[in-house]
Amino acid sequence: MSNVNWLTTLGLLPLLGALFVAFLPKTNALAAKRAAFATTLIVAAAGIAMATQFQRDNVDLQFVESHSWIPTFGINYAVGVDGIALVLILLSVLLAPIVVLAGWNEASGGRWSAKTFYILILILETMMIGVFAATDVFLFYVFFEAMLVPVYFLIGGFGSGKRSAAAVKFLLYSLFGGLLMLASIIALYVISGEQGGHTFDTTALSHLQISHTTQNFLFLGFFIAFAIKAPLWPFHTWLPDAADAATPGTSVLLLGVLDKVGTFGMIRYCLTLFPDATKTFTPVIIVLAVISIIYGAFLAIGQTDFKRLIAFTSISHFGFITMGIFAMTTQGQSGATLYMFNHGFSTAALFLVAGWMTSRRGSSKIADFGGLQRVTPVMAWVFFFAGMSSLALPGLSSFVSEFLVLVGTYTRYPVAAIVGTFGIVLAALYILIPIQRSLHGPVMPGNEGLTDLNVREKVAIAPVVAIILVLGFYPAPLLNVINPTVTHVLTINGHTDPAPSIAKAGK
Amino acid sequence: MSGFVSPVLIYSLIAPILIVLGGAVLGVLVEAFASRKIRPVLQLSLTIGTLVLALAQLWRIRHETSGGAAMGSVAIDGAGLLMQAGIVFMAILGVFLIADQENFTVLAAAVPGSPEEAHSIKSGEHLTEIYPLTLFAVAGMMLFPISTDLITLFVALEMLSLPLYLMAGLSRRRRLMSQEAALKYFLLGAFSSAFFLFGAAYLYGFSGTVSLSGIGAAVSGSNGNSVFMLIGIGFLSVGLLFKVGAVPFHAWTPDVYQGAPTPVTAFMAAATKVAAFGALLRIFYVGFANAYWDWRPFITVIAIITMLFGSFVAIAQRDIKRMLAYSSIAHAGFLLSGVLAMNKAGLDASIFYLIAYGVATLGAFGVVTLVRDSAGEITDLNRWAGLGKRSPFVATVFATFLLGFAGIPLTSGFIGKFSIFSAAYESGNKAVVIVGVLSSAIAAYFYIRVIVLMFFTDPVEDGTSVIIPSVLTRISIVSAFVLTIFLGVFPTPLLNFISSTAIFIR
Predict the structure, then answer these.
(1) What is the pTM of this model?
(2) How confident is the model over B445-455, as pLDDT tens digits?
(3) Residues 414-443 in B contacting A (C-alpha not used; CB under 8 Å)
(4) pLDDT of amino acid B2
(5) Whose CA is closest to B292, among B328, B224, B256, B340?
C-alpha cells in the first residue's frame, strides 16, 4: 500500500484553499474565484492521481488511515475507500471545479461577499470527501451533520426566491433524520461495548450479534436519515424547494453529491451493519422506491419551472438507485452505484445549463422560453444533450446504469422492474415536453436578445458532456472498480444472484 | 457526658471555599471603607484574584480524596473538586461580564422612579455590592456539590440562593421587572427550600441520620419505614428539581432569566446548574443509589416532560432571554438523563455536559449584553434581525453557541449530548434516549430560527446596534467561543481528566 496519506491530503487541500481565500481582501472577488478554482482543480488532479493507485480487484478498504481521536469513546479518525466510495469521491472532486467555473458569477446575488461563498464551497468539498472516506461511524456522522451547515448558508445566503425558508426546511429535515441516526449510533456504541469493547469501526460493528428486533429499530434509524437525504418518497418535500432556491452550482452539489450520501449510506451502513433487518425491510423499500420513480416522474411532468422539474426528475432517479441497491443483485447494485456517478453528471449538465438560461432570461419558468435553438444554438444543444442523458438515451451514460438497475431488479422483483420501466416512458415526457417548448418552435418574445454560451461556460460544460458520452459507450473503467466491492457487500449479506444469471456487465 | 471535642478541620482541603468566603468578607469591607473612585477597580481585582486563588488551590488538591475534611460533612473527591473548579471557572467568566457596570442599577436600595434614584444616577456614584454578593454565592455553590449531609446541603443551598435573589433585582433598566423577578425567585426559592427541609426531616425520621452515606446504608438495609423514605426522597427531589429548573418546578426560570441583569443571568444559568446538578448527582448516586428502582420511574417521567416541555415552549418565545431560559429547561431534562444513568459513564458525561453547557451559556448571554439601543439591551428577537449584516463576527459567535446547544457535531454540545445519551442507553433507559433525541430535533428548530433571523433577514432600522465590548467582556465571550469549538474537536483531554478523577466517595 502506498505510504502517501491520500485521503487526508485530499480532504485537507480544500480546507487549506478556504484558509487562503479567507485571507484575501473582501473586495477582490476575482482573486477569491481564481483561488477557489485553482484549489478545486488541484484537488481534482489529486483525486484522479489517487484513483490510479487504487487496486481494483482488492475488496479490502484501501488508502486506510487510522488515528485515535476520542479514545474515551473508542472513536478514531479512520478513513479508507472501497470501490463505491472511491467512485463517489471522484464524483465530488470532479464536479467541484466544474461548479466553480460554471457559476463564476453566482455569488453576486448573495447576502455576503463572493469570498464567503467560496470559503463555504471549499469547506463543503472537504466535508464531502470526508463523509465518503470515513470508516468510523462516528466520524461519518460528524461529517454527515457538519456538512449541513455550509449548505445551509449557501442556500440561505446566496440563493434566490424563498431562500431562507428553503434553507431552514432543508436543515430541519436533515437534522431530524440525523438525530434518529444518532440514536441508532448510540445503540451500536453501547452494544459494541457489551460485546468486547466500545468501537465505531464499521468492519468491527458488522460482526456484532444484534437481536432481530433491535436490528430493525437501528436499521430504521439509519434508513430514515438516508431516505431523507437521498430523498425517497415520502421524505422528499424539502428537495424541490431547496433546489429551486439554491444557486445552480449549489444545486449541482446538493443533488449531485450530497444526496448520494444517502444512497451511499444505505449500502455502506444499512446493508453491511444490519443484514437481517435489510431482509425484513427490503420489500417495503422496493415499494417506496417504485413509488418514488413514478411519483417523481409524474410530478416532474407537471412542473412549470426548470429547477423544480430537475428536482423531481432526481426524485425519480433516486428511486431507481434505491431499487437497484435493494434488489440485492450484483447488476442492480453495480448499476445503482454507477447511476450515482452518472446522475451526478447528468444533473450537473441540466442544472448548469438551466442556470445559464435562467440568468440570461431572468426567469426559470418554462413558459418564458421558446425557440432557443435559433437564438442560442450551442446552449440549446447542450441542454438537449443533458435532457437526453437524463431520460437515459442509449449511448449516454445514464442508459447503462438504468439498464443494469432494471435487469438486476427484474431477476428478483420482476413486478417492481416492470412498473419501474414506466418511469423511463414518463422520463421521455418530462424531458421532451419542456425541450420542445423551450428550444423549438418560434422564438418567444423576450428571448431574442439572449446570448449564447461564452468560452468559460463552454469550457465548464465540455468535460461533463465528454464524461456522459464516454461512459455511455465504455463504462468499464468505473464498473471494474465497482463490481468487486458490490460482490463483496452482497456476499456479506449472504445473497447470490438468482439463476439464470446474466453475464457480468462491463466485462 | 463526654467533654466537648473540638472539631478537626483539614484546612487545605476546604481552603478553596474559605478563600472565596474570605474574599467576600474583604469585599464587604472594601464596599464600606474604600473611596468611591477606586472601589470598582479594587472590587473587581479583589474578586478575580480571590477566584483565581481558589482555582489554584483546587488544582493543588486535585488528587486528594477525603471524607473527613470537615468532620464528615463534606466530601473531597474527584467529582466534587471538578464541579467546584467548573463553578469557579464559570464565576470568573461571569465576573468579567458583571464588570460591565452599565447593566446594574446605581443604587439598588432606591425605589424605582424616586428622587433618590434620580439623584444617584446624576451623581454617577456606583455601588459595587454585586462583587461580594457574587463571591458569597460562589462559596455556596462550591459547598453544595460536596456536602455529604442534609444539614450542610441546606446551609449551602441557602448560601448560594440568598445572594442570587438579591442579584436578580439589580438591573438598571426595567427595574420593576427585575425586582419582580427577584421577588418571584425568592418566593419560589423559599418554597423549594421548604420542600427540601420537609424531605430532609422525613429522611431523618426514616434513617435516624442526616448523612448521605448513613441514609444510603439505611436504604439498602431497609430497616426503616420505607414510606418515610419515599416521601423523603420525593420532597428532597422536588426541592432540588426546583433549583435545576425541571418541569413542573420550572415556573420561575423564564421570568428570572428575563428580569435579572443579563450578566447575572449568565452567571446564574451556568454556575447554579453545575452546583445544583452536582448536589443532585451526589445525593442520588450516594444517598439513594439503593433505592434506584423506586425513584427511577419518577425521575424518568420528570426528565421526559422536562425535555419535551422546554423544547416545545421555547419555540413560542419572542424574547431571546426567555428563549434561552426554556432552552435551559430542556437541557436540564437532558442532564437528568445523566442522573438516571446511575453509572460511571453517566457521572462523567454529566460533568462534561455541565461544563460544556455552562461555558456556552455564559458566552451566549455575554453576546446578549452587547446588542443594545439607546434604552439598553434589546432582547426582543425581532429586533435581532439582520445582526449578521451589522456585525458578522458577533453573529457568528452567537450562532456557534446556538449550534452548540443544538448539538451539531464539532461543537462541545454534540460530544456532551452523545456521551450523556450513550450513558443513559447503557443503563437501559431507551425511552429517555429516544425522547431526548426527538426533543433535540425540536429544539434545533428554535435555535436555527435565531440564526435565520440574524443572517437571512434584512435588518430593521430602529437603532439596534452592537456595542464594542469591553476587554473583559471580550475575554469572556471569546474564551467561551474557543472552548465550545475546542471541546467539540478535541474533547479528549477533558474527557480523560474527568474519567480519571470523577468519583464519589461514600
Answers:
(1) 0.90
(2) 889 888 888 88
(3) 414-415, 417-419, 421-422, 425-426, 430, 433-434, 437-438, 440-441
(4) 63
(5) B340
Task: Specify the pLDDT at position B309.
Answer: 93
In terms of Cα–Cα distance, which of A506, A435, A445 is closest to A476? A506
Can you give the C-alpha Rg of chain B in angstroms? Answer: 22
β-bridge pairing A75-81 and A62-70: antiparallel
Q: Per-residue pLDDT tens for A489-501?
A: 888 777 777 765 5
- Alpha-carbon distance of B502 to B506, in angstroms, equals 13
Residue with C-alpha cell 431572468?
A362
- Please give the Cα distance from A99 to A106 (Å, whole number): 10
Dist. CA A65–CA A130, nearest whole Å: 12
* Backbone Cα Rg of chain A: 22
CA distances from A493 to A489, A497, B433 (A): 6, 12, 29
Write out the H or E segment, with its range, that includes residue A442: none
CB contact under 8 Å between B452 and A164, yes or no, is yes
Option in A70, A138, A149 nearest B492 (CB): A70
Res A371 pLDDT > 50: yes
Q: What is the pLDDT of residues A285-310, one digit of tens each?
A: 999 999 999 999 999 888 888 888 88
Residue A201 C-alpha cell reads as 469501526
Reported as a pLDDT band with limits 50, 70 and 90, residue A507 is very low
Give chain A positions within 8 Å (CB) of B444.
Answer: 171-172, 175, 179
DSSP string, B381-442: GGGGTTHHHH-HHHHHHHHHHHHHHHT-TTSHHHHHHHHHHHHHHHTT-HHHHHHHHHHHHH
Residue B493 CB coordination number (10 Å): 10
Domain ranges of chain A: 6-492
Residues 6 or more apart in contact with residue B413 via CB below 8 angstroms: B356, B357, B360, B403, B404, B405, B406, B407, B484, B488
Count CB-CB contacts under 10 A for residue B375: 9
pLDDT in tens, B152-173: 999 999 999 999 999 998 887 7
Cell of A1: 500500500
How much of chain B, in percent, has pLDDT values that exceed 90?
50
Q: Is the ipTM of this complex over 0.95?
A: no
From chain A residues 151-180, the ones with a CB under 8 A of any chain B CB are 153, 156-157, 163-164, 167-168, 171-172, 175-176, 179-180
**Range in A107-111, A118-122, A230-234, B488-492 the model is least confident about:** A107-111
